[in-house]
Amino acid sequence: MNEISRFAANERASRAVVCNGMVFLAGCTAEDRSQDILGQTAQALAKVDHWLSVAGTDRSRLLTAQVFLKDIKRDFKGMNEVWDAWTVKGAAPTRATVQADMASEETLVEIVVSAALGSVVASSMA
After folding, report:
1. What Gene3D superfamilies is this protein classified in (predicted)?
2. Tell me: domain 4-116, CATH 3.30.1330.40, correct?
3. Per-residue model confidence as pLDDT tens for the chain (126 residues)
4. CA neighbours closer than 13 Å in the CB half-sphere of residue 24
5. Helix/strand/coil for 68
């Protein structure tokens, strides 16, 4: 049976959903939207860490990520600087990064991820 667990759910959406050994997160954005792309990316990734932990996993188990930037020409480099420091070496997920209209004028970045549940396993590619 593929049981489904929902975290911080309301009538519209859940912050995280776990099913069949995987966790799916809703888009994560910064709380303090007065920050620049470095600050907003760090805050969004801190939320990713939090919700992965709540669901029972961590960033070393990421499978895929979608990054939405308000202004890709201006912010791609800065977002990548924070992203590269945050990701686990040797465990980078697949990723797509696109420019998008955001739900609020102040939001510069939104990040959506999915990850595998289970114990952390170190891996390396030959």
Report:
1. RutC-like (3.30.1330.40)
2. yes
3. 679 999 999 999 999 999 999 999 999 999 999 999 999 999 999 999 999 999 999 999 999 999 999 999 999 999 999 999 999 999 999 999 999 999 999 999 999 999 999 754 443 333
4. 10
5. strand
The residue ranges of every structural domain in the chain are 4-116
**Residue 6 to residue 112: CA distance in whole angstroms:** 16
DSSP letter string, 46-64: HHHHHHHHHHT--GGGEEE
Question: 88, 78, 89: which is closest to 41 by C-alpha?
Answer: 78
The amino acid present at 66, given as its one-letter code, is Q
Four-CA torsion 112, 113, 114, 116, nearest 10 degrees:
-160
User: Could you tell me the CA-to-CA distances from 64 to 51, 80, 113 in Å, in that order?
Assistant: 15, 15, 6
State whether the Cα torsion 53-57-62-64 is positive or negative.
negative
